[in-house]
Design goal:
The protein contains 5 helices and 18 strands. It has 339 residues and is of the alpha+beta class.
Length: 339
């Protein structure tokens, strides 16, 4: 017992000293202000009048296109276009376009790496920051994942933008990439349409005080073949893990449960003694009869595929080689998010 207490104390001193070392330091990364499309992925930056969503707000309204205006665009999470909005210069529904962010600061924590905090008071519903990065195709995302795994890099910043496109804030991004997970988050990731294309923004879910850390729920759901991660947010409602399964750091990766295919001599088209050609699928949390429910800004921990084709003769070693490596930095929002 005394040895464990000493080990914990040494770890505390080490992490505290590390955090003090980074005081005043800033992380090094390629900063960009807006999403950058990497061919062949495309990104819309303008819209024609016939495609613009015009609201019914007027410049003489008490709160034109504001939080209390019942603006149709705002209610549907569409930003107004300044060229076609009837409220004109009084429009208050262009926050992402105008980058109306509060002052934000990146700092280093003792146990969760880099983090993000706000330097002014904020109200519920305020825009904190847009999640900015490179817009790439799903194919390019899979290629980058394989490249990172080959080099031993477990830091991922992928966030699904649409069914075919992904935001990767790893090579290039803004300060939103440093927002940590929390089970009692003060912001949520929301998808807004600006000029006909999708943007992802962190919106305050409650009043936030100056100096508070900015967090959001990664919604990292468990999938077969990937172990849960230890959650270090420290919230009162924290279950201790992210992912829905018990975190077991001593066991390492958990192999998926495989249902062996049944062989029946009475099945149509199958002869006695012939080896079954059926293959088993890794059991996931997908509901019966279709795709998983769509969730806004949901982080999903997975590799290039959600299910692995495993035959009845597949060995444990072969299944282990199919699995992606576990993440090592809990401050990094791992994985691929689905809309």
């Amino acid at each position: 017992m005394e040895a464990k207490q000493k080990a914990k104390e040494l770890l505390r001193l080490k992490t505290t000293g590390l955090a003090r070392f980074f005081v005043g330091q800033k992380p090094v990364y390629n900063k960009i202000r807006s999403n950058k499309a990497i061919a062949p992925a495309k990104y819309i930056t303008s819209v024609k009048k016939e495609d613009a969503h015009e609201c019914e707000c007027k410049p003489t309204d008490p709160d034109p296109c504001g939080p209390t205006s019942n603006c149709l665009n705002r209610d549907m999470e569409y930003e107004c276009n300044p060229k076609y909005c009837s409220a004109g210069d009084k429009c208050q529904n262009q926050r992402i376009r105008k980058k109306e962010y509060p002052k934000l600061d990146v700092f280093f924590t003792a146990n969760r790496g880099w983090a993000l905090k706000v330097m002014q008071d904020m109200k519920k519903g305020d825009l904190v920051v847009e999640y900015v990065g490179e817009i790439i195709t799903v194919f390019e995302r899979n290629r980058r994942i394989k490249e990172k795994q080959a080099s031993g890099d477990a830091n991922f910043y992928y966030l699904d933008l649409t069914n075919a496109r992904v935001i990767d804030a790893g090579p290039s991004g803004n300060v939103a990439r440093f927002a940590n997970h929390s089970c009692d988050a003060n912001t949520s990731s929301q998808k807004w349409v600006v000029d006909g294309d999708t943007h992802i923004a962190l919106i305050a879910t409650r009043d936030i005080k100056k100096g508070d850390e900015i967090t959001f729920d990664y919604r990292w759901e468990y999938e077969a073949g990937i172990t849960s991660r230890e959650c270090l947010c420290g919230a009162d409602n924290c279950p201790g893990t992210i992912g829905g399964k018990t975190y077991e750091p001593t066991r390492g990766r958990q192999l998926p449960t495989v249902a062996k295919p049944k062989r029946s001599s009475t099945s149509p088209g199958r002869k006695r003694g012939r080896k079954s050609s059926l293959s088993a699928k890794v059991v996931t949390n997908t509901p019966e009869g279709g795709r998983p429910p769509r969730k806004r800004g949901r982080f999903v921990s997975r590799g290039a595929a959600t299910a692995l084709d495993i035959s009845a003769d597949t060995t444990d070693q072969q299944m282990t080689e199919m699995l992606p490596p576990l993440p090592v930095d809990p401050s990094i929002p791992l994985a691929i998010a689905e809309p």
